[in-house]
Amino acid sequence: MIRPGTAREGNRITILDPWLPGGDYTAETLAAPTGLNYAYTDPSGWTLETRDFDYAASPAPLRLCAENACLDLNLELVDGLRSFRTPDGLTAPRTYTGAITILQETLDSLATAPAPLVRAIRLLTDTTPLREITATASLGDLTIHLPTGPLALRRQP
Description:
The protein is mainly β. The protein has one domain. Helices cover 10% and strands 41% of the residues. It contains two helices and ten strands. The strands form two sheets. The protein has an eight-stranded antiparallel beta barrel with strand order 3-4-5-6-7-8-9-10. It has a two-stranded antiparallel sheet with strand order 1-2.
């Protein structure tokens, strides 16, 4: 049901608020960029990074690059169960359950990708569209816990 003050076009709902200047605000965000950028550089030459990591929102976009070729993945995270309220921010490390996801079309196109990129995809996703992981985040690093071991992305300026 659409309430008065909204308009529907397909699957998109636009809020019509008389207090806001006219326009479409569906692409706007309620949270400002966090400035929390994390990156990892593997000795074999590939890099993995996320920019403006939001500890309270999912997904976090991941950018995987090697030999001038890049792929986009997502880090889907759910805050772990806890008994008490967690303070806002990353004042203490947060634990997440989640997955690394990649589009099947991207996986299908790996035949033409550079070898270091293919090795990284195998490590991160095991060449499946969804790989379950756990992760921890702090002000210093974002660690993705893979079956092969932890991968620590360090905070960047």
